Amino acid sequence: MTLPFTAPALLAPMEGVTDPLFRALVLARNGPAWLGGATTEFVRITDVPQEAKRLRRELMGPDHGRPVGLQLMGSDAPAVAASAAAAAEAGAPFVDLNFGCPAKGALRGCAGSALLDDPRALGRLVAATARALEGSSVPLTAKLRAGGADDRLLEELVRAAADGGATLITVHCRTRAEGYRDSADWRRLERAVAATNVPICGNGGVEVHADLARLIRATGCRYVMVGRAALADPWIFSGHRASRQEALDFFHEYAAGLATRGQAGRSGSRIKQLVAHWKAGPGPGGLIRDRRRELLQLGTDHEVLRAIESIPAGPSI
Questions:
Q1: Could you list the active site residues?
Q2: Can you tell me the distance from the alpha carbon of 98 to that of 116, in angstroms, rounded to the nearest whole number?
Q3: How far apart are CA 288 and CA 76, in angstroms?
């Protein structure tokens, strides 16, 4: 089945980050020649399937001509499969299964990265979901980590997803136990590529625009996915060096969008989440420079935005 992406770089699904607003802002700043598509935050599936009406809300927002797939996370195969069929009905251009979330809640529910300990169960879940999408033009993809406690099952996990019917497998090159630590072993991506003929999308260790091509060259991956680095620099896919005004505009559009969507009560944490990662803008330290700690100690969105605006322009490079 043909994958719908316009370019090999993809925006990762991130809980609490890649809502319709953030996705739209990033897609708008990176053309289809650079950024091929994105995926929603995961939708948690228990033993009750989600309906198309509910899933359609996850896909809301401008996609700027790029496919935005719907990610599902659960361990109940019939419920996940039925939800995938509902996602196709809702208009999802592809459905992704989450086998990477290391959160304790996911582990307690035997979902997300919990299934990395049981390749056969992972394969059965993928196969059940693929069957539910038969007859549609909606491809199934899967996102997993390099392993649970270690990476010994990596090849088995990749083959289980491929044999189950995944048409693209994203491999985060850290294990569940490694979480989001700084080190990222791209040799694991090479192993994933060697384990199957299904296209592999490499995830992890991308910090700057040049890393996109470097990962593909070094590992043989067909695609590359960027997560937290897009929080640090929303222009990372195109490599554009944002001006001070462009960086300020991003913060203001994000804050305004959160307020418009009735998320004002949550917007403070979302704005500070940007501040915690931000590197975009002119100069070696980007717009935030050495003011990050000070900004994170402020209270309201208005205070944070006003403080950011007060940062001197500084040198541009």
A1: 101
A2: 11
A3: 44
Q: Supply the pLDDT for residue 264.
A: 53
- Extract the tokens encoding 122: 């992972």
Q: Comparing 112 with 143, which gets the higher pLDDT? A: 143
- Residue indicated by tokens 């700690």: 293
- Domain tally for the chain? 2
Least confident range of 52-61, 112-121, 138-147? 112-121
For residues 63 and 121, membership in a common domain is answered with yes
Per-residue pLDDT band for 220 (boundaries 50, 70, 90) equals: very high
Looking at the structure, tell me whether residues 159 and 261 fall in a common domain: no
- Mean pLDDT of the region 215-242: 97
Is residue 315 assigned to a domain?
no
Distance of CA 13 to the CA centre of its chain: 2
Domain that holds residue 289: 244-309
* Phi, psi dihedrals of residue 80, rounded to the nearest 5°: -65, -45
306: which residues sit within 8 A by CB, 6+ positions away? none
Relative orientation angle of helices 264-277 and 244-260, to the nearest 10 degrees: 150
Both 185 and 268 in a single domain?
no
**Using one digit for the tens of pLDDT, what is the confidence trace for 301-315?**
889 999 999 988 754
pLDDT of residue 262: 63
Last residue of a domain, one of 232, 266, 291: 232
Please name the residues in contact with 254: beta carbons below 8 A apart, sequence gap of 6 or more: 21, 22, 25, 270, 271, 274
Residues 154 and 261 in one domain: no
Q: Is the CA virtual torsion 32, 140, 162, 16 positive or negative?
A: positive
pLDDT at 265 over 60: no
Burial 244-264 (b: 16+ CB within 10 A, else e): bebbbebbeebbebbeeeeee
**Single residue among 232, 255, 275 that ends a domain in this structure:** 232
Q: Is residue 1 part of a domain?
A: no
**Residues 187 and 203 sit within 8 Å (Cβ to Cβ):** no
| Percent over 90 (pLDDT), the chain | 76
